[in-house]
């Protein structure tokens, strides 16, 4: 498995500025009783390989990273690095997500630490696709 991180300048890393942004259409998702539903027809960020969105607020207990991998599968993570609590980004061309900060911790799609200073895994969530909607169970 290839592990790599994105090249960012020192200020981007110090500030913990992730590459993954909220969806352009915030009405594409809703959270209800521990289940996040994303309407894929309203979430263009998730139509391409390694596309991703960061979901925040809306009653969520913490930010969620939802991404599409290179094979068309979907993954969801608690969007807080286990090292310093910074955001995560999918790494195109790999089966990993990485931390946006100085530590550069790298995790696989099961949330296991592959490299970096993180001492434990990042939480992952079950994702299934039903009728052009993603259902993420928190």
What's the architecture, going by CATH? 3-layer Sandwich
What structural class results from the helix and strand content? Answer: mainly beta
**What is the approximate shape?**
globular
Poorly predicted segments: none
What is the CATH domain class? Mainly Beta
Order of strands, main sheet, comes to 1-2-11-10-5-4-3
- How many H/I helices? 1
CATH topology: Rieske Iron-sulfur Protein
Distance separating the two termini: 27 Å
Order of helices and strands: HEEEEEEEEEEE
Radius of gyration, CA atoms, in whole angstroms: 14 Å
The count of β-strands is: 11
Sketch the major β-sheet.
Answer: 7 strands, antiparallel
**Fraction in helix:** under 10%
Per CATH, the superfamily is Rieske [2Fe-2S] iron-sulphur domain
Q: How many domains make up the coordinates?
A: 1
What does the average pLDDT come to?
Answer: 89
Approximate strand percentage = 35-45%
């Amino acid at each position: 498995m290839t592990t790599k991180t994105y090249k960012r300048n020192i200020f981007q890393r110090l500030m913990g500025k992730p590459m993954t942004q909220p969806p352009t259409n915030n009405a594409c998702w809703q959270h209800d009783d521990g289940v996040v539903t994303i309407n894929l027809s309203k979430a263009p960020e998730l139509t391409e390989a390694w596309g991703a969105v960061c979901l925040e607020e809306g009653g969520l207990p913490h930010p969620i990273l939802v991404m599409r991998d290179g094979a068309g599968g979907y993954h969801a993570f608690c969007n807080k690095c286990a090292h310093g609590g910074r955001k995560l980004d999918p790494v195109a061309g790999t089966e990993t997500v990485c931390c946006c900060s100085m530590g550069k911790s790298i995790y696989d799609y099961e949330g296991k630490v592959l490299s970096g200073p993180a001492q434990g895994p990042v939480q992952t969530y079950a994702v299934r696709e039903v009728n052009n909607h993603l259902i993420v169970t928190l």
